[in-house]
Amino acid sequence: MPQPSRLLVNTGTGKGKSSAAFGVMGRAWARGWKVGVVQFVKSEKWQVGERKLASHLGIDWHTLGDGFTWESTDMGETEARGRHAWDVAAGMIGSGGYDLVILDEVTYIVRYGWISVEPLVEVLQARPARTNVIVTGRYAPDEIVAIADTVTEMVKVKHAFDQDIKARKGIEY
Amino acid sequence: MPQPSRLLVNTGTGKGKSSAAFGVMGRAWARGWKVGVVQFVKSEKWQVGERKLASHLGIDWHTLGDGFTWESTDMGETEARGRHAWDVAAGMIGSGGYDLVILDEVTYIVRYGWISVEPLVEVLQARPARTNVIVTGRYAPDEIVAIADTVTEMVKVKHAFDQDIKARKGIEY
Fold first, then answer.
1. ipTM confidence
2. Domains plus CATH for chain A?
3. pLDDT band at B76 (very low <50, low <70, confident <90, very high)
4. pTM, two decimal places
């Protein structure tokens, strides 16, 4: 019987939640794993470095809004993009084709009320034995923490931003 | 006037201290930065993934014991290796040739009493304006925290090891 896959959660208000996930991405690549990443918060400025690295390493990458065509419905466009990204993520996990799927900042789609926590729990619990998942973001829902194997809270002890130092390219984005 | 370089510290007993540093390593690579890594805790099993990735990305890497020839002195071999790794790290930082230097688990050489904290503080404070430094490891000394720009404590909320699940290749090492 295969060893069960892991669910890791990086939460808290400190730094390093996404960086730690991308560190594991590199480690997984080194092991020859098939890795997929879905970013639930879109930003042109932040996180472009990770995407460039992922592209260089042949890692599948989906950022909120990729391949999304807006058609007016009763929900707002931002919410519709969030739900679309979740559908992509659920498809990646359910496919059985990945050793690691990173759901970067997925907690926000629950926080914003775009997706209720139940479908997340359902997809995460039904993940294939092959497919490890890392969830990052502030405010990890209790229901996700409850089913996770490893949960780390990143706690801010001290932050350069508090001292009015501008984000530095390479370190911060 | 150049923006001053940053000193980041990832400490605490939770997961993700080194992973977050290696996530930043990837981001820095994507920005075209010159990166150096010194690992102060040697392990054949752990962290080989990061070294493989670093090698692939053309990042300078030194692990405790690399290039070290043991000559009997009044200190133990382990201590001598630790001091040698610190000399390599101090040389990297002082050279001015790096945009980012990662001192992975450097806190242990202080914890174990191989190096006092003063030379660390001295080298870190005298770092070139170009050279950002990330310090990782449990028990970050107060003197390092005091001079850091950003300090994050990784707090264990829940850990798979507590539940007797074996470390899984790719995720844990």
1. 0.81
2. 7-163 (3.40.50.300)
3. confident
4. 0.85
The amino acid sitting at A45 is K
**Residue A39 touches chain B, beta carbons under 8 Å:** no
Mean pLDDT for the stretch of residues B74-83: 83
- Choose the closest CB to B16 out of A16, A25, A50: A16
Chain-chain contact of A6 with B152 (C-beta, under 8 angstroms) = no
CA A3 to chain centroid: 23
Which residues of chain B neighbour A31 with C-beta distances below 8 Å? 49, 169-170
Summarised one tens digit per residue, pLDDT across range A161-171 is 555 555 666 66
| Mutation target vs A (from B132, B154, B161; most A CBs, 10 A cutoff) | B154
